[in-house]
Specification:
Layout (H helix, E strand, L loop, with lengths): L1 E2 L2 E2 L3 E3 L5 E4 L10 E4 L2 H9 L6 H17 L4 H11 L4 H17 L4 H36 L5 E5 L16 H9 L3 E6 L6 H13 L3 E4 L4 H6 L5 E4 L3 E3 L4 E4 L2 H10 L4 E4 L5 E2 L5 H4 L8 H4 E6 L2 E6 L12 E4 L6 E4 L2 E3 L3 H7 L5
Parallel strand pairs: 6-7, 6-9, 7-8, 9-12, 10-13, 12-17
Antiparallel strand pairs: 1-2, 3-4, 4-5, 10-11, 11-16, 14-15, 17-18
Helix pairs in contact: 1-2, 1-3, 2-3, 2-4, 2-5, 3-4, 4-5, 5-6
Length: 357
């Protein structure tokens, strides 16, 4: 993705093999890159949401293992700390466990070996997102061609863009490819309380890429669908079960209900790295992260050139902050994966990924 005519990925190495990320807490008001110098900083970057988004968390965790090896720290303890930093997104645990297994199998725990594995995970993530974009593009093209070539209105929830991955994004990948191909698209961007990733991140990156978009309050989606102002909903996922249930940013379930009631296609962009083939029932099995109540009670914004945090409720009011909800497979039109588009059920998912049968 280009920012002010300079190409950036969600995470990268410089020539000295230092790990760099974008501090997403400051966007859209300040663009700042920071170096992750050690395991502790990688863990903090994930838990404090300097980096966020399931694919990027997974890649960051992989480089966290590299940083631990570089500092001569035990990789088993490093793995424990990284996996505890955020529980819902499966990419994190998958990346860490993959490195542990490779180290054990190859009997090689060298810094260079772990670094190469982290690089491989990063490249695979990028490739998955690009292919998701190519498959999802067909959905947008079909709507465009069947709707007298009018602009395609797409609704998305939270941020599943390049900031949540390495590049392209998951839910945004088809949007970027359609825009670049000359298909007129317009994106309804949910603000996505409580951390406002839609307002601060999705709107920011769509604007940087020149994609027409409109920010809306989270509760506006149903109204737009009732009035035929949404052609398709595309969201991301932090964990998808083998039967097609999806855990995504809190509020996704409500969008799926509205889409179902109004006959609006509802798709989830799901790289295989986000599919937990060991889980079947999303409601019963997916752990839902509960975060600090202050994320609900306070909001950040720009005023008079400075970023301020303000209280929006009585100080003694208690707040609940569930970071994710689960959308049952029955509400999905399908999953967009790097291997193609499939129905949200176990048979269809395993047909695309037979290696996990």
């Amino acid at each position: 993705m280009n920012i002010a005519n300079q190409y950036f990925e969600g995470i990268w190495l410089d020539n000295n093999k230092k790990v760099w990320v974008i501090d997403q807490r400051l966007l859209p008001f300040e663009f700042k890159t920071i170096e992750l110098k050690n395991l502790e900083e990688a863990v903090f970057a994930i838990s404090d949401m300097i980096v966020r988004g399931a694919p990027l968390i997974g890649v960051t965790a992989a480089f966290g293992m590299y940083l631990a090896a570089k500092e001569k720290q035990g990789i088993n303890e490093a793995a424990k700390q990284l996996k505890a930093s955020r529980p819902t997104a499966i990419d994190l645990a998958k990346s860490v466990n993959r490195i542990l297994q490779k180290v054990k199998f190859e009997k090689n725990s060298s810094t260079e070996f772990i670094l190469n594995e982290a690089k491989e995970i990063k490249l695979e993530t990028l490739d998955q997102c690009k292919k998701i974009g190519e498959h999802g593009l067909k959905l947008i093209e079909d709507i465009y061609n069947s709707n007298e070539q009018k602009p395609v209105n797409i609704l998305t929830h939270c941020n599943a863009g390049w900031l949540a991955t390495v590049d392209y994004g998951t839910a945004t990948a088809p949007i970027y490819l359609a825009h670049d191909k000359g298909i007129p698209v317009h994106v309804w961007v949910d603000e996505t309380r409580p951390r406002n990733q839609g307002a601060s991140l999705t709107a920011y990156e769509l604007g940087q890429h020149g994609v027409p978009h409109t920010l809306i309050a989270d509760n506006s989606g149903g109204h737009l669908m009732q009035h035929k102002m949404v052609d398709i909903v595309i969201v991301g996922t932090d964990r998808t079960t083998r039967q097609g249930d999806v855990a995504n940013k809190i509020g996704t379930y409500l969008k799926a209900l509205a889409a179902k009631d109004n006959h609006v296609p509802f798709y989830v962009a799901a790289p295989s790295s986000s599919i937990d083939f060991n889980m079947s029932d999303g409601l019963k099995e997916i752990p839902i992260e509960e975060r600090d109540e202050n994320e609900v009670k306070y909001m950040k914004g720009l005023s008079k050139g400075e970023i301020h945090e303000i209280l929006i409720c009585p100080d003694n009011t208690k707040a609940a902050n569930y970071a994710f909800d689960v959308t049952p497979a029955r509400l999905l039109s399908g999953l967009i994966t790097e291997s193609g588009i499939c129905e949200a059920n176990e048979k269809a998912i395993l047909a695309l990924f037979p290696e996990f049968v």
